[in-house]
């Protein structure tokens, strides 16, 4: 049953990522990968909320499988982040590549932590 939940979540998360990335990138005339950055930050916040809620007993393992592992796993994309960073470097946009690394990791960790603590507040 949990495997099915992961599959359903991923089936929704991956196309959601693609659609949102296309919508964001079409609005920016920049080498910076705003779509991937935004998606990964939002996914980090969402996963922090889900796992924080699970830690406090507010959501079940089924919800974690569906929304956390499935949706967030299909929605966020470390591989695209890596590819886009390498591409920026190869294209000579080293500053943008460095900012992508720092902003993605820094803001992503802050978002995940914020999600975890927000779940604690709501579970409270």
Molecular structure report:
The chain has one domain (2-123). The protein is built from five helices and no strands. The chain has helices at residues 2-25, 34-55, 61-75, 78-90, 94-123. The longest helix is centred in the last third of the chain and has 30 residues, at 94-123. The chain is globular, with a radius of gyration of 16 Å. The model has no long low-confidence stretch (mean pLDDT 97).
Q: Tell the overall outline.
A: globular
User: What structural category arises from helix and sheet content?
Assistant: mainly alpha
Tell me the number of helical segments per DSSP (H or I, 4 or more residues long): 5
SSE string, helix = H, strand = E?
HHHHH
Helix content: over 70%
Alpha-carbon distance between the two ends: 30 Å
Cα-atom Rg, whole angstroms?
A: 16 Å
Task: Summarize the biggest pleated sheet.
Answer: none
Beta-strand segment tally: 0
As for the number of domains, it is 1
**Low-pLDDT segments:** none
Strand content is under 5%
Mean pLDDT: 97
């Amino acid at each position: 049953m949990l495997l099915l939940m992961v599959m359903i979540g991923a089936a929704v998360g991956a196309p959601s990522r693609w659609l949102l990335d296309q919508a964001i990138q079409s609005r920016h005339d920049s080498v910076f990968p705003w779509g991937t950055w935004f998606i990964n930050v939002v996914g980090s916040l969402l996963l922090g909320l889900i796992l924080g809620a699970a830690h406090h007993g507010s959501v079940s393992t089924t919800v974690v499988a569906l929304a956390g592992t499935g949706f967030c796993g299909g929605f966020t994309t470390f591989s695209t982040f890596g590819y886009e960073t390498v591409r920026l470097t190869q294209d000579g946009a080293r500053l943008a590549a460095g900012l992508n690394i720092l902003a993605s990791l820094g803001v992503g960790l802050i978002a995940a932590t914020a999600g975890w603590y927000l779940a604690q507040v709501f579970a409270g």
